[in-house]
């Protein structure tokens, strides 16, 4: 399929696909006239990339998932390198949640104190 069809089927843009290709995540063959041609497997790869990006992964984080798919697996998250990335990302999210909990408690304390200090009108 040509780049426009892949973009349409993956609900993305041709520019995005070229970006993924430039970063080594998506593979295209070149026809004699220079057009990019993609096989059906690239659609699955693009869906994997977009799903991972949607939850905060960066392109380097995504590489093991793409490699896992290219190795013939039905899912990009079943390979050991993918599991390592998932564990690391989960630890990062947990740390952010802890930090946000601390910030929330501080804000709640400040709000409670501010309300208590207000003079009645």
TrEMBL record:
GO molecular function: DNA binding; DNA-binding transcription factor activity
Domain HTH merR-type, first and last residues per copy: 1-68
Keyword Oxidoreductase: no
Keywords of this entry: DNA-binding, Transcription, Transcription regulation
Pfam family, one: MerR_1
Coiled coil residues, start to end: none
InterPro entries: DNA-bd_dom_put_sf, MerR-type_HTH_dom, MerR_fam
Superkingdom as given in the UniProt entry: Bacteria
PANTHER family on file: HEAVY METAL-DEPENDENT TRANSCRIPTIONAL REGULATOR HI_0293-RELATED, REDOX-CYCLING DRUG-SENSING TRANSCRIPTIONAL ACTIVATOR SOXR
Protein's name according to its UniProt entry: DNA-binding transcriptional MerR regulator
Organism listed in the record: Plantactinospora soyae
């Amino acid at each position: 399929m040509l780049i426009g069809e892949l973009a349409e089927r993956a609900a993305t843009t041709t520019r995005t696909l070229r970006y993924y290709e430039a970063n080594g995540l998506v593979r295209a063959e070149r026809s004699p006239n220079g057009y990019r041609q993609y096989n059906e497997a690239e659609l699955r790869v693009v869906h994997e990339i977009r799903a991972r990006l949607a939850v905060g992964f960066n392109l380097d984080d995504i590489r093991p998932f793409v490699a896992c798919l290219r190795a013939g697996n039905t899912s990009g998250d079943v390979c050991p390198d993918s599991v390592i990335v998932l564990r690391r990302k989960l630890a990062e999210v947990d740390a952010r949640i802890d930090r946000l909990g601390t910030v929330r408690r501080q804000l709640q304390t400040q709000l409670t104190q501010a309300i208590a200090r207000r003079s009645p009108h």
